[in-house]
Amino acid sequence: MNRSIYFKELKLNRKSFILWTSILVFICILLTALYPQVAGDMKALLSTKMVSENMQEFFGMRMDLWTNVLNYFSTYYGFHVIILSGIFSIVVGSTIIAREEGDGTADFLLTRPLTRHQIVLSKLSAYLTLLIALHIILSALILVMFTWVQNENGYNMKSFWVMEIYGFMLNLFFGLMGMFLSVLIKRGRSFVGPGVGIVLGSYTFEAISRIDDSVKWLGYISPFYFVDFKVYETDYGFTWWMVLFLLVSSAAFTYATFKVYSRKDIYA
Amino acid sequence: MPVINIQNLTKYYGVSRGIENVNFSVGKGEVFGFIGPNGAGKSITIRTLLGLIYPTSGSATIFGLDILKDSKTIKKSIGYLPSDVNYYAGMTASELLRYSASFYGIKTGSYYTHLIEVFGVDVTKKFEDLSMGNKKKVGIIQALLHQPKLLILDEPTSGLDPLMQAKLFEVLKEENAKGTTVFFSSHVLSDVQKMCRRVAIIREGGIVAVENIQTLRSKHLKKCRIDLSEMPHVNQFALGGINELKINNNAVEFMYAGEMRALIQHLGTLNITNLSIEEPSLEEIFMHYYN
Fold this sequence. Notes:
The structure holds 2 protein chains of 2 kinds.
Chain A lengths: L2 H10 L1 H20 L1 H13 L5 H6 L10 H27 L2 H5 L3 H4 L6 H34 L7 H28 L7 H18 L7 H4 L19 H23 L6
Chain B lengths: L3 E10 L2 E11 L4 E5 L6 H8 L7 E6 L2 E2 L4 H5 L2 E4 L11 H10 L7 H10 L12 H13 L5 E5 L7 H16 L3 E6 L2 H7 L2 E6 L2 E7 H6 L2 E8 L13 E7 L2 E7 L2 H8 L4 E7 L3 H9 L1
Parallel strand pairs in B: 3-8, 3-9, 6-7, 7-8
Antiparallel strand pairs in B: 1-2, 1-4, 4-5, 9-10, 11-13, 11-14, 12-13
């Protein structure tokens, strides 16, 4: 790894990191702070039986299960927090290498005494640092907020970390997939638009697949299918084949990025 | 051992030709010109040498090391100036130069200060705020900063004013005197003629000649246009060295490769009303030289 590239990437992405982190921090604070109020309102809404179970599934509401703050927060975590952090992850992942070509700076970087593996490794390390930092900040913040708003039911700390690690693995999957797809593209054209589309599209596919068994197959083409944010289920924990899928596919994207970039023609 | 040795280097993009069977070598301490019109394959050759693009076939060595296997080692001793300088927009010139120096494990000391003084760049400005000429100067400084053994310059004078071009030539001559080999790629023949001892001419992806610059100069190729008071006869231009003669009423156009004194003496025998003698374009030299 090259320290100069690593620190330059952290510096270059700091504004974007601060912006996205601030948005997510604000959302997490807002969502957790609203828990006592919303939990009461939902309890009242549920009693009217106006929202069907299918609708509840589609919107990830599961109102009857908002008995503690983690159950409540998990329904938003798997949607708002993960979609936004997923977009951040795929945008950073897909631009961190490709931007050099897009901005015409690849000629400068690739004519320094470095191997292409060193360049990818340095940029990958910077990306991982940003993603890990984002999750640490959010986890710390959420835990602090939980201690303020939790009710007498408390919450399961182990379930929180399982949910958080699933979220991290999903974001990692998106970022590494973005990185791989971006090195496939000639002349490093911007991958931001397609990246946002992939995250939103994946979520929608998985959400639709939950409505009815006839469209369940749609879920298999979405990485959201391979994470579990249903912390309210009694046996909630890691499912080995889901974890395996995310880790193996992330490792495959990383390996493919190194392979493709090491032989890629860089155009002026 | 040549500093650069290229053997049958070929690059195809699918079925379209990039370069084909390029062969030449550059000796230690040479200032070697690489000339050809736009799209001839100059940049593709350079980019292949630098490991930016991968050859379809053929091989090349720099300092005796393979350009593919030993790319990292080779680049420690190369300074490269691209034709279009694109650096990190948000960085100041100073930050960029320090960033570049960090890859070579060097500190920006007295040589850095010297180069900034010579080229007169305000390094506190952000790169995006610099003029085209100043961007080029930053590019030149970053290529020279680590005192490389080989300088690869792609269209180095483009964007520089004549004063700065002269300064660049001066610096390159100083570096060459210290033993630095210079690979000077350009489509401006006069630039190459000023700097280089030998030149490789590339056309449509292939090397058409590797010439000593003196051989090219000795041809004294000039493009001549004259107007005469009366319609001339072809026989009036039967002077050795006159080629591509075109007579259009009283106007005559031809290429001349030979002693200037002989041409002037010959023209003195004609009733000339107007005369222009100019440098031919590169394309015209190609046409003359290879027809």
